[in-house]
């Protein structure tokens, strides 16, 4: 039976959808320190490589992963004062009595090394720096755009000139100063990062929780917290920093911190491993939520040029190798007449890796034309059996923090698409509930990548929920049947992922491909997914032969 486009599944979220993330630090964690090499590795991976992605400067320039994959660029960099976009880096440095003059000097050294490392690029413009110190009170040492910190040399001297103050620990006052004085100076479209460095707990000016939340949510700051020694309250820092363990760095002393940044500056991270992501879900996502850049680094956007020469997004996909994308065959129903390889016209399609926002170019974004699009040889237009396809890219993507591959299921292990288990799907699908045969409006599509969690259902539930053919060996269904959240138009081809143990680690595995459904977020209806486990032989054979 032929079904029309409203059945093509893509991603749907309702306005009541919420994402819950809970982070808890135990007393045992309070006393745990990592070795120097591990600290340097995490500093490089979680902080430096992340910020370097935003340090690339030209609005339409792509491929920043290439610029950073080889480590540190030793060429000098001009710190730009006026360009739109780029990186706004704000350092908030503890200068209280507990730090002592020697510790404060080491903290300044860390700050200089961090700025030097982030600034080591030949890409003109993009990175601006502000410094706030705090003891009993907070002081703005220099602000974003100050002419006296227009170059690396001037910035280093300005940091050297900062004096130790002593006194109490006015954390909230320091963050409030950032919000009132520094945040308004940020450029439109810039990425704002705040590095908070302390060896103690706030004891003047009240709790920093509220102001930190406002900086994150209203002012758009990504906040890192560096805890030096055993005195800092990890609970307080978890309320200051952005959500996720990667945003808190724990070191035994300021000496260790300086050693870590020097090692991190020249460390090289291997991003070739599949299924790795900084996403840390300690509570189940019960509805659609805006994702964070880099949480689903295998997610790609499949696009096609329209008659006016504009590139339009129409489907999702997942990187399974640097030159291969897994997606759904039905994404190409409008262009294919027969199963097998799709005949391509020159520059007809594009695949965008490292993309988070569809409404603007991004520094991590890599746009690559397909060399081949291969539909399953037993897929027929309008038939959702064998709804799977592979795209071979003309060039390999440059792997990095925001561009990685997802793992494929292993034939030697059990299928991960098991009933009652939860999986995750990311995509740019419509955010409205839709009845069958109803197409969404363009305004219903989100510009930012979203994600949601879905429970896999028993085969009998899947079969009884639809009048169409359900083949459990080739597909599965997922969702809650309550109409709360679902995949919908715009998400087709994206991966349904679950964590599976590979070697001694858990990694994200593509258990399914977003395929079809009846409407979006409808009561007693579910999303249907191609069961990837059943197609491993076809995937491996296709990649080997092409």
User: Spatial order of the strands in the main sheet?
Assistant: 12-15-16-11-10-9-13-14
> Outline, from the CA principal axes?
elongated
Into which percentage range does the β-strand content fall?
A: 15-25%
Largest sheet: 8 strands, antiparallel
What's the Cα radius of gyration?
25 Å
Question: Helicity range of the residues?
Answer: 10-25%
End-to-end Cα distance: 32 Å
* Helix count from the secondary structure assignment: 11
Average pLDDT reading: 82
> What is the number of beta strands?
23
Low-confidence stretches: 1-31, 57-83, 120-124, 282-287, 432-443
- Helix and strand composition category: alpha+beta
Domain VWFA: 88-269
Organism: Acropora cervicornis
GO molecular function: serine-type endopeptidase activity
InterPro entries: Peptidase_S1_PA, Peptidase_S1_PA_chymotrypsin, Peptidase_S1A, Trypsin_dom, TRYPSIN_HIS, TRYPSIN_SER, VWF_A, vWFA_dom_sf
Written account of the structure:
- By secondary structure, the protein is an alpha+beta fold.
- The chain is built from eleven helices and 23 strands.
- The protein has helices at residues 27-30, 36-55, 64-69, 100-119, 152-160, 171-182, 209-217, 234-240, 254-264, 459-464, 536-545, and strands at residues 12-13, 87-94, 127-134, 138-142, 191-198, 221-228, 248-251, 289-290, 299-305, 311-321, 324-327, 341-342, 349-353, 366-368, 370-375, 389-393, 422-427, 450-455, 475-478, 485-486, 495-502, 505-516, 527-531.
- The strands form four sheets. It has an eight-stranded antiparallel β-sheet with strand order 12-15-16-11-10-9-13-14, with helices on one face. It has a seven-stranded antiparallel β-sheet with strand order 8-18-17-21-22-23-19, with no helix packed on it. It has a six-stranded mixed β-sheet with strand order 4-3-2-5-6-7, sandwiched between helices.
- Helix 4 (100-119) links the parallel strand 2 and strand 3 (127-134).
- Helix 2 (36-55) crosses helix 4 and helix 6 (171-182) packs parallel to helix 7.
- The longest helix has 20 residues, at 36-55.
- Mean pLDDT is 82; it is low at 1-31, 57-83, 120-124, 282-287 and 432-443.
- It holds the Pfam family VWA.
- One of its GO terms (biological process) is proteolysis.
């Amino acid at each position: 039976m032929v079904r029309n486009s409203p059945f093509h599944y893509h991603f749907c979220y309702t306005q009541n959808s919420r994402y819950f993330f809970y982070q808890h630090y135990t007393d045992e964690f309070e006393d745990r320190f990592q070795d120097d090499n591990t600290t340097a590795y995490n500093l490089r991976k979680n902080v430096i490589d992340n910020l370097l992605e935003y340090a690339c400067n030209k609005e339409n320039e792509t491929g920043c992963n290439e610029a950073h994959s080889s480590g540190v660029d030793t060429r000098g960099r001009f710190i730009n004062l006026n360009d739109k976009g780029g990186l706004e880096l704000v350092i908030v440095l503890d200068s209280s009595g507990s730090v002592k003059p020697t510790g404060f000097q080491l903290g300044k050294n860390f700050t200089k090394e961090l700025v030097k490392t982030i600034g080591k690029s030949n890409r003109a413009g993009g990175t601006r720096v502000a410094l706030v110190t705090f003891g009993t009170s907070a002081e703005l040492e220099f602000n974003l755009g100050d002419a006296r910190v227009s170059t690396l040399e001037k910035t280093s001297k300005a940091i050297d000139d900062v004096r130790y103050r002593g006194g109490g620990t006015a954390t909230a006052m320091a963050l409030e100063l950032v919000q009132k004085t520094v945040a308004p100076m940020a450029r439109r479209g810039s990425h704002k990062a705040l590095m908070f460095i302390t060896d103690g707990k706030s004891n003047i000016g009240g709790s920093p929780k509220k102001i930190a939340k406002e900086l994150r949510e209203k002012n758009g700051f990504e906040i890192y917290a560096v805890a030096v020694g055993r005195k800092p309250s990890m609970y307080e820092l978890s309320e200051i920093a952005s959500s996720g363990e990667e945003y808190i760095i724990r070191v035994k002393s300021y000496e260790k911190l300086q050693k870590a940044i020097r090692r991190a500056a020249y460390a090289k991270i291997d991003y070739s491993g599949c299924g790795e992501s900084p996403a840390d879900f300690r509570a189940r996502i019960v509805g659609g939520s805006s994702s964070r850049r880099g949480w689903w680094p295998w997610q790609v956007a499949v696009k096609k040029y329209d008659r006016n020469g504009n590139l339009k997004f129409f489907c999702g996909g997942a990187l399974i190798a640097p030159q291969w994308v897994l997606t759904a065959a039905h994404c190409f129903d409008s262009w294919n007449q027969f199963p097998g390889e799709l005949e391509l016209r020159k520059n007809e399609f594009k695949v965008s890796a490292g993309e988070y926002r569809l409404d603007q170019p991004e520094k991590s974004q890599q746009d690559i034309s397909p060399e081949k699009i291969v539909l399953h040889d037993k897929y027929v237009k309008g038939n959702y059996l064998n709804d799977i396809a592979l795209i071979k890219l003309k060039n390999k993507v440059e792997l990095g923090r925001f561009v990685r591959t997802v793992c494929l299921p292993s034939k030697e292990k059990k299928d991960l698409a098991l009933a009652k288990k939860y999986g995750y799907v990311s995509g740019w699908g419509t955010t409205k509930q839709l009845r069958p045969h109803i197409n969404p409006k363009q305004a219903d599509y989100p510009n930012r990548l979203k994600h949601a969690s879905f429970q896999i259902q028993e085969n009998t539930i899947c079969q009884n929920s639809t009048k169409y053919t359900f083949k459990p060996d080739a597909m599965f269904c997922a969702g809650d049947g309550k109409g709360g959240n679902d995949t919908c138009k715009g998400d087709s081809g994206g991966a349904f992922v679950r964590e599976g143990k590979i070697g001694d680690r858990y990694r994200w595995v593509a258990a399914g491909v977003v395929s079809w459904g009846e409407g979006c977020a409808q009561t007693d209806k579910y999303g249907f997914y191609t069961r990837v486990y059943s197609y491993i032989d076809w995937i491996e054979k296709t990649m080997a032969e092409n």
